[in-house]
C-alpha cells in the first residue's frame, strides 16, 4: 500500500467497492497530504471497512503512515476530525448512525496508528506525532487559535465521556473513546518508573489542564460506569464489522499492530462476545482502567519553576534538596472530594464545596465494589477511595453489612498463593486503614457469619467476621513466612491484629488457637535463628568480610523476629488486659499452650508483657487446682471453670501498657509504585 496517485472518489450513494476502500486507506498512509477540509476525510470515515488484509500489508501500512506523517500531518488531521465528530454526537439528542460510524472509525483509526507511533518512537518529546498543524489552513476556522492539537483533542474526548450517557446507540463509541484514552496515555510506558521534570506526555498533560467542570464530569461518569456496568446490545452489530460478523480492515490493523506489544489494543472481538455475559463488563472495566491511570498520574516539575503553592504538592521532605514537586492532579482531587448524593455532610453543616463536585450514590459504589473485588483493578480503586476520600471511608465504617466488602477481601487473602504480591499488599492496606477505627474493630465481632463456604481446612459455622479476620491474617502470615518472606507484609498483618486486639469480643476457639500457635511458630523460628547465630560465632571463617556479612544478616533477621514476637505478645496481652471477660476461648488457648511462653520469661524484650500473661495463668491455674473433680478434665469442664471465673476477674496485678495503634502512611514516593502498578493492570488485560 503506497501513495494514491490521485484523490480517491466514491460513487455518490453507492456502497464502496473493495478496491475503492483500499484506495482510501492507501491515500491515508501515502505521501500526498489531504487538506483538512477535503472531502476525503468524510469519505474515509464513512467506510464500512469490511476488507481483509494480511499481516504484512498491515505492518507496511503502519510504517508508511508513520513515515509520511511528517509531511502529511494526517494524524493531527484525523484527530481534529474525531473531535468534530464527537462534538456533533454531543450537540444533539438524536444522532444518526452515519455520525456514530464516522466518530467510531475516527477513534479506531487514530488508536491504531497512534499506538504504532508511540511504540516505535525514538524521541523523548514525541516529535513523531507531528501534532503541529497550520492553523491558517482552509477548514481550520473553527479550530480555537489558542489551543494545541493535543489540548483540543483531550477536551473533545473528555467532554464526550463526561457529558454523553452510555446508551445502546452510544456504547460502541464510548468503548472506542475509552480505548483511545488508554492509547493516548500510554506514552508513560516509555518513561522511567519515577516521574522526572524532563518527561513529556502530551495527551495526559493536556488532560490535566482541562476545566474543573470537565474533570468532575469525567470522574463521575467513569465511576457511574463502574457502578452500573452498562451492557452492550446482545443483538447489536459493531460498525467496523462486516455483515457476516467477521472483523474488517481496521480489526486486522488493530490485531497486527498489537504484535508490537507495549500496550495491548482492545480489539472489538474482545468486546463482542458470543455470550451476553462476556459483553457486559468491558465498558466498566475500561472506564476503571482509564480512571486509575488518570488519578495516579503525577506531573513532576522543576523546583525552581514558579507556580502557585496551592497547585502543587511535594513528594518528600521539605529539607531534601532533591525534593520532587508535582502539579496537583485534578482527577485525583475530584475523586478524593467525591460526595454521597444521598447525604452530603458539607451541605448539612453549611459548608458547601466551591465549584463542581463529583456526586454519586456511595451505597451503589459500595455494593458494586463488593461484587467486583476479585478484580485487581477494583481493589486499587477501593484503596484509592478509603485512603483518599474521608467521606467514603466514613461511609464504609458505618455500614452494618461490612461483610459485603470484607468477605471478598478475606477470600482473596485465603487464596494468596494465586494472587500477586501487589494485590496482597493492597488488600492488607485496606484492612489496616479500616482497622484504625475502633468502631470498625467492634463491629466486625458483632457480625456473625452463618458459614464460610470457601474455607476448606475446617467447617466454620456461626463464626464472627472478626474471628474470621484473625484466622485469615494469621494464615497469611504463615504463608508469607514459608513463601514470600516479606517483612512489610508481616508487619501489616500484625498491625491489623494489634489494632483489633483491645476490641476483640468472643473470639472463636479456632481463632484463639491460631493466635497462640502463631506465637509458637515465630518463637521456634526465633530459637532456630539464635542457635544458628551462636554456631556461626564459634566457627572460624577464613574470609572475615564474609563472616561479618553473615553475622550482620543474621542479627538483622533475629532483630526482626524479636519485634514480631513482641507484637504478638502485645496482641495477646491487649486481649487479656482489656477484653478478658469477653474472651474465655483466648484464656483457654493460653492455658492449653502455656509452655510456649516459658523460654521467654526472662527475655529483656518480653518479660514485662509476659508478667501479665503469667498473672492470668496463675489466676486461672489456681482456680483449676481448687476444683474438686470426679474423673479427668475435659474441654467443656475447663471452659466451664474459665467462664465462671471470667465473671469474677478484676484484673488485679495487671500492668497497663499503652495500646499499640498502627496507622497507614504512604511511602515518600508513592508514584513510584502506583503509576507502574496502574499500567501493569492495563497491560494484564491484553
UniProtKB/TrEMBL annotation:
<comment type="similarity">
    <text>Belongs to the dymeclin family.</text>
</comment>
<dbReference type="Pfam" id="PF09742">
    <property type="entry name" value="Dymeclin"/>
</dbReference>
<dbReference type="InterPro" id="IPR019142">
    <property type="entry name" value="Dymeclin"/>
</dbReference>
<protein>
    <recommendedName>
        <fullName>Dymeclin</fullName>
    </recommendedName>
</protein>
<keyword id="KW-0519">Myristate</keyword>
<keyword id="KW-0449">Lipoprotein</keyword>
<dbReference type="GO" id="GO:0007030">
    <property type="term" value="P:Golgi organization"/>
</dbReference>
<dbReference type="GO" id="GO:0005794">
    <property type="term" value="C:Golgi apparatus"/>
</dbReference>
Amino acid at each position: 500500500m503506497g501513495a494514491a496517485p490521485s484523490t480517491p472518489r466514491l460513487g455518490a450513494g453507492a456502497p464502496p467497492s473493495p478496491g475503492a476502500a483500499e484506495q482510501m486507506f492507501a491515500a491515508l498512509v501515502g505521501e500526498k497530504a489531504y487538506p483538512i477540509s477535503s472531502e476525503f476525510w468524510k469519505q474515509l470515515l464513512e467506510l464500512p471497512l469490511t476488507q481483509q488484509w494480511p499481516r504484512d500489508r498491515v505492518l507496511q501500512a503502519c510504517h508508511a503512515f508513520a513515515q509520511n506523517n511528517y509531511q502529511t500531518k494526517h494524524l493531527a488531521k484525523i484527530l481534529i476530525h474525531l473531535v468534530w465528530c464527537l462534538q456533533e454526537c454531543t450537540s444533539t439528542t438524536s444522532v444518526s448512525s452515519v455520525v456514530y460510524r464516522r466518530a467510531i472509525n475516527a477513534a479506531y483509526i487514530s488508536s491504531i496508528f497512534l499506538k504504532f507511533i508511540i511504540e516505535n518512537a525514538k524521541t523523548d518529546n514525541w516529535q513523531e506525532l507531528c501534532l503541529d498543524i497550520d492553523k491558517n489552513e482552509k477548514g481550520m476556522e473553527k479550530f480555537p487559535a489558542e489551543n494545541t492539537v493535543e489540548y483540543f483533542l483531550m477536551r473533545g474526548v473528555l467532554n464526550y465521556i463526561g457529558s454523553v450517557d452510555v446508551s445502546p446507540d452510544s456504547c460502541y463509541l464510548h468503548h472506542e473513546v475509552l480505548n483511545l484514552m488508554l492509547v493516548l496515555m500510554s506514552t508513560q510506558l516509555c518513561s522511567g518508573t519515577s516521574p522526572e521534570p524532563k518527561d513529556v506526555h502530551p495527551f495526559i498533560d493536556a488532560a490535566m489542564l482541562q476545566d474543573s467542570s470537565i474533570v468532575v464530569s469525567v470522574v463521575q461518569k467513569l465511576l457511574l460506569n463502574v457502578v452500573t456496568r452498562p451492557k452492550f446490545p446482545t443483538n447489536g452489530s459493531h460498525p467496523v464489522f462486516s455483515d457476516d460478523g467477521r472483523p474488517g480492515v481496521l480489526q486486522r490493523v488493530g490485531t497486527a499492530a498489537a504484535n508490537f506489544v507495549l500496550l495491548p489494543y482492545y480489539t472489538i472481538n474482545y468486546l463482542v462476545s458470543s455470550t451476553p455475559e462476556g459483553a457486559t463488563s468491558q465498558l466498566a472495566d475500561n472506564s476503571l482502567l482509564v480512571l486509575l491511570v488518570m488519578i495516579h498520574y503525577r506531573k513532576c516539575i522543576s523546583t525552581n519553576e514558579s507556580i502557585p503553592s496551592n497547585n502543587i504538592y511535594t513528594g518528600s521532605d521539605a529539607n531534601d534538596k532533591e525534593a520532587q514537586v508535582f502539579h496537583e492532579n485534578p482527577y485525583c482531587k475530584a475523586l478524593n472530594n467525591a460526595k454521597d448524593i444521598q447525604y452530603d455532610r458539607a451541605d448539612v453543616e453549611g459548608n458547601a464545596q466551591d465549584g463542581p463536585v463529583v456526586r454519586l450514590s456511595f451505597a451503589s459504589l459500595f455494593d458494586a465494589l463488593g461484587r467486583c473485588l476479585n478484580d485487581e483493578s477494583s481493589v486499587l480503586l477501593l484503596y484509592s477511595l478509603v485512603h483518599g476520600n474521608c467521606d467514603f471511608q466514613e461511609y464504609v465504617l458505618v455500614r452494618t453489612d461490612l461483610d459485603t466488602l470484607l468477605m471478598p477481601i478475606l477470600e482473596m487473602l485465603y487464596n494468596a498463593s494465586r494472587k500477586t504480591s501487589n494485590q496482597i499488599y493492597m488488600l492488607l492496606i485496606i484492612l489496616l486503614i479500616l482497622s484504625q477505627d475502633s468502631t470498625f474493630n467492634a463491629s466486625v465481632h458483632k457480625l456473625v457469619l452463618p458459614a464460610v463456604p470457601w474455607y476448606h481446612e475446617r467447617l466454620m459455622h456461626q463464626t464472627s467476621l472478626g474471628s474470621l479476620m484473625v484466622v485469615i491474617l494469621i494464615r497469611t502470615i504463615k504463608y508469607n513466612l514459608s513463601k514470600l518472606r516479606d517483612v512489610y507484609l508481616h508487619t501489616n498483618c500484625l498491625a491489623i491484629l494489634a489494632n483489633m486486639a483491645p476490641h476483640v469480643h468472643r473470639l472463636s476457639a479456632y481463632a484463639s488457637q491460631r493466635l497462640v500457635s502463631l506465637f509458637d511458630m515465630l518463637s521456634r523460628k526465633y530459637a532456630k535463628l539464635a542457635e544458628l547465630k551462636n554456631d556461626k560465632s564459634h566457627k572460624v571463617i577464613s574470609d572475615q568480610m564474609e563472616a561479618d556479612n553473615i553475622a550482620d544478616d543474621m542479627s538483622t533477621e533475629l532483630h526482626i523476629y524479636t519485634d514480631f514476637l513482641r507484637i504478638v505478645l502485645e496482641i495477646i496481652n491487649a486481649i487479656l488486659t482489656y477484653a478478658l471477660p469477653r474472651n474465655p476461648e483466648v484464656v483457654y488457648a493460653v492455658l492449653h499452650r502455656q509452655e510456649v511462653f516459658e523460654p521467654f520469661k526472662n527475655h529483656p524484650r518480653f518479660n514485662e508483657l509476659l508478667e501479665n500473661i503469667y498473672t492470668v495463668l496463675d489466676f486461672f491455674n489456681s482456680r483449676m487446682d481448687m476444683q474438686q473433680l470426679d474423673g479427668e478434665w475435659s474441654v467443656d469442664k475447663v471452659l466451664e471453670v474459665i467462664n465462671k471465673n471470667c465473671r469474677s476477674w478484676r484484673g488485679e496485678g495487671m500492668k497497663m501498657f499503652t495500646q499499640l495503634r498502627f496507622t497507614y502512611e504512604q511511602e515518600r514516593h508513592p508514584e513510584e509504585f502506583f503509576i507502574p502498578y496502574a499500567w501493569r493492570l492495563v497491560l494484564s488485560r491484553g
